[in-house]
Structures are given as C-alpha cells and as structure tokens.
Amino acid sequence: MAPNDSAQATGEAKEPGAGRRKAARYAVPIAVAGVAAATIGLVPALAAAGDPSLPKISAQQLLEKMAASDTQQLSGTVKVSTDLGLPGLGSLGSFMPKGGGSDTSASPDAKLTELASGTHTLRVAADGPDRQKVSILEDAAEYSLIHNGNDVWAYDSGSNQAYHSRHSAADAGKEHGGRTPDAGVPTTPKALADQFLKNVDPTTAVSVDGTVRVAGRDAYQLLIKPKQSGSTIGSVRIAVDARTSVPLKFTLLPSAGGKAVVDAGFTKVDFSKPSASTFTFSPPKGAKVTEDDGKQKQTFKPGENLPGGLGGLSDAKDGKNTKVIGKGWSAIAEIQTGGKGLPKADQGKGGQGGQDAQKFLDSLGDKVSGPFGTGTVFKTRLVNALITDNGTVYVGAVTKDALVAAANSGH
Q: Cα separations (Å) of 6 from 221, 241, 275, 346, 357?
C-alpha cells in the first residue's frame, strides 16, 4: 500500500467546491427518484490482487487534481446494487416522483426509480456535455436513455415503448419545473462523488488511504469521514484514477456496520471517444412513442433529496414550515405538517380486526417518547425519520437517538 497523507481535515483545503464546479463538465443523465441520488450504488468493481505503488499525494492535492480534471469522454460497464434495508420500493413513499409525469413505461420518471433497490448492470457512455447514454441491462430486455444535443430519447425494449423530448438551451429552464428529463441524478462514481464533495465542510475529515486497482486501472483511495457523532454514515471511499483523476469507485458504509449501502464502481472503463453512433436513436418499427411537450411537470428535484449534510437539507430552511437543526453530517430537517401524526386504526368498528390493524401500524416503526411527547421512528440503513403524534416530522441521515434529541431540543 503506497504511503499517503492521512487524517487531513477539509478545513485546511481552500474552497475545494469552487474548483470542482469547473470539473463538472459531464454527467450521465438519468432522472431517478430523489432518494436514489443518495442511495443508488454500484457493486464493487473487480480489483486485482495487490495495491499499486503510486507517488505520494496529499488529500488536498488529490482534491485539486479531481477539480482540474477535464475528462469529458468515456464508456464502460457498471454494476448497480442498493441496500437500504427496505422491503420494496413502496416503502420509499414521498421520495418517489408524484403526479404530472408521463406514465409510459419508457418515461425516465417511471422507469429509473427501479435503480433505488436491487442489483442492476449499466452501460454508460459520455462525449462532452451534449451527448450521454445510459442503458440498464435486464435478463430479457434493455432500457436506454440517450441525450444527443437537443434530443432526449428513452426506449424500453421489453414493452417496445419510447419517450422523446426535444428542447433548446433557451427552453431548458422552462420545461419540467426548471429541469429537463436528461438533468437527472448521479449514476456514475464521478457524479456520486461530486454530490458528496461539493458539500464537504469543516465537519468532515478527508484523507488519502492508500491505493487500489479498479477495472484494471491504478487509483488512489480518498477517505471521507464525518467528525460528528450521530450520523448513520460511517465513511465514504472514492477510488480516483491515477492518470485521469476521474472517480472510478464510490463506497458508502453505514456507521452501524455491515455491508455498504452504496458501492459504486466500474468493472470496465475506456476513456477514448465513443463512436458517434452510440448516441443516435430511431424508434423501432411498431414502437409506441410518447412525445413530451413540456407540460408534464417534473415535480421532484433529485439533488434536493440528499440526506443530512450531503445536500438534502441545505435548502430545507427555505421551505415553508421547515427548518434545519444542526449542520453538516448530523443536520436534521424539522417539518411542521399541520397534521395529527400517524393515523390510528378504527378500534370501535373493527373489533379484533381493528386491533390487528393497529398492531400492524405500530410494527412499522419504533415507538419513542420524551419531553416532546410521543412518536414513531421509521428507519432505513441511511435515512431515518421521526413522526411525532402531534404531526411534526424530523428526518435526516442520523440515528434514532439523534432524532429524539432534536425533537426534545424544542421542549
């Protein structure tokens, strides 16, 4: 393992976010549900035995190299696996896109929420900011999303349905509530890394933790850890290509231990220019094509749903009836719903059935109490939420105890 600078706090860096914005020149476009921005992951990339010997580099230098990277062309294969500890997509609730979007099976809003759970294989390609493609490979079908200039196409071979949107740069800010269909959330290690690194602050420690080989390439390992207690996030590792400074692998480990919640890595990658034909598409004969006229409003905003200090709560203070408690990795959003908490089963009319229904509702979360009153905590391996019986919601990438403490802080 090559010797590298370790335990370097990000407070020593000089505004790494500003440099990274210069580097954000390509991103594979996918419109996935907002929760996927923080939870979509890729199965660990295949790594060769033994760590490569690379020149010593500090965390600050590695961040600067990542920010200065001008790589705009690549193609490759990634594996997608997400483990939130949820029984199914239905449990994602309000994080899913709601209303207004196209309901065809080829619509990005509808199709790509599948990446929020399970295991998937993707093929990705990018050639600058105007040409990107992502394909989800299934057992007997393939779903592709292609951005080529002003055109965005999506095609589901299983249903032989296609989705098409066309917009100019001038129209981009007017359609879909200010977001076009191709302006989606991260699906590559680089895009995932950008989401985390742009929110790095003094509550975060960053170091270089040795080297690794990913998809046959030498890489440094950037280690990101919260300095604060109470976060559900234990650490984030980003394998950074030694030659291009492009992230090749992204791993998010929970503070409670166990396997990764998010693990993103290329199994194959090529930094040469993809063929122009990669980004061309014509609907097959007989395909049902849905034209998006821009009236279907995209109601979810992927980048705004990242939990805790990862960006999800950074704008919450601007929301009505919402404020942020704390900062960084332990930030918690407090939302006043104006409601009465969780619904109660009708005990009077249901008899034993009503009691059973109430037991089922109670089993969905953990009952808690304190000076704030009583409530229920609903948990995943990453995002937890406390709903009090008076209708206040506390949510963040924090532990149950942190949520209860936040609720008690106002009483």
A: 11, 18, 41, 58, 53
Dihedral (C-alpha) 193, 195, 200, 205: value to the nearest 10 degrees? Answer: -30
Find the mean pLDDT for residues 225-251. Answer: 94
Q: Sign of the C-alpha dihedral, residues 25, 31, 32, 34?
A: positive
| 255-298 pLDDT, tens digit each | 999 988 888 789 999 999 999 999 999 999 999 999 886 655 44
Cα–Cα distance measured from residue 300 to residue 302, given in angstroms and rounded to the nearest whole number:
6
Statement to judge: residues 209 and 254 lie in one domain: yes
For the cut 60, the answer to whether the pLDDT of residue 42 exceeds it is no
CATH code (residue 53) = 2.50.20.10
Number of domains in the chain: 2
DSSP state of 74: E
Q: How far is CA 83 from CA 87, 113, 352, in A?
A: 10, 14, 36
